[in-house]
Amino acid sequence: MKKSTQETIKESNIGLILKNIKENIYLSRIDLSKKTKLSRSAISNLVNFLIGEKIVFEGNKINSEQGKKPIELIFNKDLYYIIAINIGTDNITVAIANLLGEIIYISKKKNQPLNDKDHIIESIFTTVDEVLINSNINLEKIYLLSIGTHGVVNPLTKIVTRSPFFKNWNGINLINIFKERYKKEVILEKYTDLAVVGEHWKSFNNLNNIIYLNIDYGIGAGIIINRKLIKGIKGTMGEISHLPILKNNNFKRLEQNKLELGLFESQVGIIGIVNKVKNEIKKSKKDSNIIIDKNIDNINFDDICKYYNAPNNNIVKKIIDNDIIKILAIGIVSIIALIDTEVIVIGGLITDLGEKFIDKLIKKIYCITPFKQEILVSKLKKDNSILGAIKYGIDYMDDIFYNRFLSILNK
Questions:
Q1: Strand, coil or helix: 319
Q2: How many domains does the chain have?
Q3: How far apart are CA 273 and CA 316, in angstroms?
Q4: pLDDT in tens, 367-387
Q5: N or C: which end of the chain has fewer CB within 10 A?
C-alpha cells in the first residue's frame, strides 16, 4: 500500500532530524530548527516522538549566554547493533558494533581448512554465536549482518562467482545461508571492496578517490571514485590478479596460461613469490651468501622476509629486486594509467618485506610512469576489511534512518 503524502513528509522530516542529530554533537531543538528550516513546533513534536521511541534521548544542558539553557539531543547509538563478518583466506573475523561503528566485541580465528565449505560456514556460525555471548548482546538487538568474503560477488545476484582459494565456494549464496540461520537482514560484498571502504573511512575520509591494493595470497583492488565504491557490472572491477603481465613478455605463455590463479597473481602473490624463491635457490646452490636453516621445500614467506632484510647480499634480495618488484611495478603502473586517483594504498602480507622494499617499489613505479600518484602503506593492515564491513553496515542503516524510517518502527 502506498504511503500517504502526510506520512511521506513525516518520514522525510524525521530523516532530516536524525541525520543532523547523529552527525552533530551539542545540537539542541533550536539548533535543529535553524539547520533544517523546520518550525520549532514541528521540531518539538518530532523530537518528542523520537524520544518516545527511544531513538533519541536528551543529554546535558548546553552552555548559553542568554535565557534558558537548551538541552543536547543524542542519537541512541545502541538502539541496534551490526554483526560484521570477514571471511578471509587466513582468518575469519567477527565483530559486533553499534550504530556509530564503535566495536563492542571482536573475535578472529584461523580459517582452515579452505577446501571444506561446510566447515567454513559452521566455523563462522560458531564464532558469531560466541561473539554474541561474550558481548552480552541479545540477538534481538542485531538488525543487520554485514559480510565480506573472499571471491568475486555478483552485484545483482550477490552470488559468489569465483573463489580460487576456497574449494566449492563458487555459486554459494551466503545471504540466504545467514538469513536462514539468524533471521536478520544480510548484506554482502567481496573483502577487497570492504577493505577500501575501511581504508577510506578510517584513514582517508578527506579524499574522494582511493585505490586499495591487497597483495597477499591473492591480489585484488578496491576502488572508490567520488566517494562511491565501484564494483563493475559483474563485480569483477579490481580483479587485477588477471593482468597479463610477465617480466619478459611472452604472448604464447599468456595464451597457454591455464592457472586457476591469474597470471599476475601467480607471479607476485605470496604463493608465487615463495615458489619462485624455492625454485631459484634450488637452481643456484652455489650462492654462498644465504644460509638456509631449514629444508628448502619448507621455506615460507616469513623466511623470505628475514632473508630479504638480512645485512648481506643474497639470492632472495636478487629475486625480489630484479623480478618481483619489476613485475609489481608494471602492474601498478597499468592501474595508474587507467584510474586517476588521489592515493594508492598497499596492504597485505607483501608489506611484511619492509620499508626498503616499499621504497624500491615506489621508485621503480615512478621510473616507468610520468603520473606520480601518492603511494602509501596501509596503517590498518588486515583490520581494514572488518572495519569496512562495519562501515558498510552503518551506511545501510543510515539509509534506513534517513530515508525509510517508518520501516524501523515495524520491526
A1: helix
A2: 3
A3: 10
A4: 999 998 999 999 999 999 999
A5: N
